[in-house]
Amino acid sequence: MVQQEWIPRSVDVSVPSMARTYDFLLGGAHNFAVDRELAVHVSRVMPDARSAARVNRAFLGRAVRFMTDRGVRQFLDIGSGIPTVANVHEVAQAEFPESRVVYVDKDPVAVAHSELLLADNDRATIVHADMRDPESILDHPETRDLLDLDQPVGLLMLMMLHWVPDADDPWELTARYRDALAPGSHLAITHVTADGQDERLSEVTGLIEESRSADRLTERPHHRVRALFGDFELVEPGLVGCAAWRPAGRGDISDTSEMNTVIYGGVARKP
Amino acid sequence: MSSPGSTPDPRPASPDGSRARDLLARKWGYLLSGAEMIPLTAEELERELREQLDVLCAVLTRDPLDLAAVERVGGHVVSLGHVGEDGLRHTAEVLAAGLPALPEFQPAGAHADRITRAIGALATGFLVANRRSVLEQQERMQLSLLKAVRDAKWNLKESQARFDEVVTSSASGIVIVGVDGGLIRVNSAICDILDLTAGELIDKTLFDLVDPGTVGKLRAAMLAVVEGRQDRVRQSQRLVRRNGDVARISLTASLLRDADGEPGHFVVVVEDGTELVLLQSELNRQALNDVLTGLPNRQFFSSYLEGAVRRADPVHGVTLLHLDLDAFGMVCDSLGWRTGERLLVHVGQRLKSLLALEKAMVARFDGDEFGILVENTAATPDIATIAAAVNRELAEPLYVDGRGLALSASIGVARGSARDQDHTELLRAADQALRRAKAERRGQWVLFDPNQDTAARSTHALAVGMPGAWEQGELSVRYRPVVRLSDGVVDGVEAVLLWEGPQRPVAHERCVELAEMTGLILPLGEWLLGTAAGQVRWWGQGGGVAPPLTVAVTAHQASDADLVSRVVRVLENTGLRADRLVVGVPVGVVAVPEAADNLGVLAEMGVRTALEDFGLGPDDLAAAQGFGVRSVRVAKRLVDLGTGRGAGFANVLIPVLHETGVLIAVDGVTTEAQATWWRDRGADVATGPHFGPDQPAAAFYEGLQVHL
């Protein structure tokens, strides 16, 4: 028989991937020409976009260490993307080797990459699922195998919820995740905002729309991002530009003030 | 992390030196972490860099200079994180300034050469490690990509296995053949029908199995499918069995295309005539109903319709409604396809119950489309009542997965009454009406209008024939004079299209409208501009007269992201000066950001920009003052303003327009009276049949010379 070739759209390297573009902005090489092209366009509009990516990644490290300091030893990282530098399991297991991490992504390339990277790590795994189906993630055998949902979990949704349009009701979706977690669990979110930004952000949004990627950026104002945390209690200093969330060094902040505030970051605890 | 292998004594010579190294390492770390993603805390990074600095200093104090050790330092810096060119730049700068200032390297001049060589070696090590890291990442990425594709294919294999299962177990003969008819696979049922073994079928073609008397019509039909003239082959055929008997079978062949859309192979299903009868009822049930909703499918509906039209009441006829749920895609996108499927089931049930009192059939077509056939009687409600009832019914929230979803449907309606009417024509008419309904507001119904349909069809036919005509050279550029109203002198030339069409010539305005429908306008418009620009430039060479060239673009062209680059390309290729070109943009599109951008950029380049189809309304007047526009051309429909009731307001508005400093042109002037009226109102130039026909280049130029 003649075999029909069939390649899923997300494996089509002529379509830019947000995860790989982000990796390029971080200085990584886990990307293809089409991703780099988009990143170059973005950088043309927003010359310091690289530093926004770096500042967000640095936030990840601080948020994970904040959680491990409070006894959290298991993590669920939704929308983990392409494993790049300073991944959750690297940060958590560096200090507490017993930490367990479940990554979740819907992009088959990101999943394949994570599987390769995590092949030798029996305390970290990746689940191929869509964030919009919380039960498929929370009830996934791999999740159940690695995480004990009766104990506190560190739930990370970094640079991911702005890809979920209002029509998909991210507030209701995050509530379903929050409800499944035990008291003492923590939720960390970073989210792009237009608060205090000029028209360059909408140009970037436009660039993504014009690209062949199906992803659309939905930036949200402070109160709508705040609402994603629901009744979890935000820890100090609350929901702020992610560079201003407990910065500890030069690497945590950008020289450009807009890049320090274009991404909101916050960590909240389930009472 | 450990420092590189052959560790020389890392300690600085003095406590002072130690403090200086701390400071240098801190500065180095500060600069690095501000530029690159390094997953270390400030203290960790400083400690790492301090160790590397110690290694560097130790090398620098010893002879011979151990450049290999310095290269390892470069490699180590790369390994700290994603460290690339910015990291190297900061490292080189901070060390080039910092090392000579350390106490152990005083006087600085004595060590300058060694420090320079060391920084060079560090850069080398950095580069090698960075390249290796990039290659490793790229390789992992390729591996991931392969893995993702393989995982996807594994899923595909599964579905292929299911397909195999169907083929093997089917009671119908199934043959997979190449486009040339060569057999690729057969199942056991076909072997039974032919009384041959699979082995005996190797190297045979489908045509070898068919009775020579009927093989011709099979070949012809398969060719028609390959060429896209026909969807599938469905024939009564005769196959030759082992003993020479003829088996009467019905044969269906569908063409599967490969990923590039090229014909791949045929799936041929052969049903034994005798078996067929036995299986008829079962097949009917399976093949004629939609699996999801249980409603008849399009095929069933269509064949039922055929009979219904034949037996229709000659007075009341039948009514065919073609429904499409509005915004169904949005439901699926937001709530998932499962919810969408459940919704379709509900909709099907509601439609059925709504029409329970009528002699009606509700069928599911594809996706979110439904068909309803009503066999009318004297008591059947009229179309408006039925259509309204459908939308009222759907507007009642349907509860799916705990959500109340209210829907509306766009409905195309066609009526059939003549007994000789073709049922496929009726289906097409309803579909056509549906498309018009969808083009309007949601939740509308539209009755099929044969006149509108004929006009639309001939327009479509012309539009789709246009690219071919262009390629055949049937389209040409004509030149239209732009005349100064004060003295009648030709002050410019507008390039327009002429199509020596299939029946009669198609004028510029219609050409543009047709090309706009298909998007052909983008390349065609560039060709028009390029040809005309070349012509005008040629006229202008050697001291000739070259009037400025006007080219009006369409809304589509005006907002084309490539408009500017197309214009630049033409100007470069032809050598026409930007200020000799007038690009006219429909005033209605300046509200589109892309079009406004294009206008602005063209004006900045020095191209003269104009607003076309200018309407003298407040929005138009406002547009005339922005975007660097040099002129406006009053719309054709306003050319008779002088004779109508609008004269008064024109007398007020035209001076206002003049004050903005733009030139005023008028389009579509057909009489001297119109020309005079506009001249008296202060219009500058005009175009239109009054000033002569559109002409080929040579004739136009000749006229120009005479005129002068």
Automatic annotation (TrEMBL), chain B:
<dbReference type="InterPro" id="IPR000014">
    <property type="entry name" value="PAS"/>
</dbReference>
<protein>
    <submittedName>
        <fullName>Diguanylate cyclase</fullName>
        <ecNumber>2.7.7.65</ecNumber>
    </submittedName>
</protein>
<keyword id="KW-0548">Nucleotidyltransferase</keyword>
<feature type="domain" description="GGDEF">
    <location>
        <begin position="316"/>
        <end position="450"/>
    </location>
</feature>
<feature type="domain" description="PAC">
    <location>
        <begin position="233"/>
        <end position="285"/>
    </location>
</feature>
<dbReference type="Pfam" id="PF00990">
    <property type="entry name" value="GGDEF"/>
</dbReference>
<dbReference type="InterPro" id="IPR013656">
    <property type="entry name" value="PAS_4"/>
</dbReference>
<dbReference type="InterPro" id="IPR043128">
    <property type="entry name" value="Rev_trsase/Diguanyl_cyclase"/>
</dbReference>
<dbReference type="InterPro" id="IPR052155">
    <property type="entry name" value="Biofilm_reg_signaling"/>
</dbReference>
<feature type="domain" description="EAL">
    <location>
        <begin position="459"/>
        <end position="708"/>
    </location>
</feature>
<dbReference type="InterPro" id="IPR000700">
    <property type="entry name" value="PAS-assoc_C"/>
</dbReference>
<dbReference type="InterPro" id="IPR035919">
    <property type="entry name" value="EAL_sf"/>
</dbReference>
<dbReference type="InterPro" id="IPR029787">
    <property type="entry name" value="Nucleotide_cyclase"/>
</dbReference>
<dbReference type="InterPro" id="IPR035965">
    <property type="entry name" value="PAS-like_dom_sf"/>
</dbReference>
<dbReference type="Pfam" id="PF08448">
    <property type="entry name" value="PAS_4"/>
</dbReference>
<dbReference type="GO" id="GO:0052621">
    <property type="term" value="F:diguanylate cyclase activity"/>
</dbReference>
<dbReference type="InterPro" id="IPR001633">
    <property type="entry name" value="EAL_dom"/>
</dbReference>
<keyword id="KW-0808">Transferase</keyword>
<feature type="domain" description="PAS">
    <location>
        <begin position="159"/>
        <end position="229"/>
    </location>
</feature>
<dbReference type="InterPro" id="IPR000160">
    <property type="entry name" value="GGDEF_dom"/>
</dbReference>
<dbReference type="Pfam" id="PF00563">
    <property type="entry name" value="EAL"/>
</dbReference>
